[in-house]
Design brief:
With 126 residues, the protein is mainly beta. The protein is 13% helix and 37% strand. It is globular.
Length: 126
């Protein structure tokens, strides 16, 4: 029986275009690394894989086709920290029915969402 998400992968022409952003800017921990592929995340939780793929070239031409959601326990603080670091957000923190979300672009144009369970209005949220 399929139970849910185990991992998601983002492919690049060069892993080194993405790894510093996900590891150093977003702060995801490296769980496993080999030449051309890295797994980010905590043991026992869904992970994000980053890898070099021969069929991928340049920026993502259709970034809204898929998005990876990264869990946060303080969306407002992460948004402020990442904005100050120069990260491009396409959606500032916004409250929806059950979650609050902010959407950003990685260095290759992939859309990544920061997701926090809703707990009322967030400072600076629309």
């Amino acid at each position: 029986m399929i139970k849910g998400l185990s991992a998601a992968s983002i492919w690049s022409a060069d892993l080194n275009n993405l790894l510093p952003f996900y590891r150093d800017v977003l702060g995801l921990k490296v769980a496993f690394q080999s030449p051309g592929f890295v797994v980010l995340g905590e043991p026992g939780s869904p992970t994000v894989g980053l890898g070099t793929h021969s069929e991928v070239r340049g920026r993502n031409p259709d970034p809204a086709r898929h998005m990876i959601g990264l869990a946060t326990d303080d969306l407002a603080a992460d948004w402020k920290r990442l904005t100050a670091a120069g990260v491009e957000f396409v959606e500032d923190p916004t409250d929806y029915d059950t979650v609050s979300i902010a959407t950003l672009r990685d260095p290759e144009g992939n859309l990544i969402q920061l997701v926090q369970p809703a707990r009322g209005r967030l400072p600076g949220a629309r």
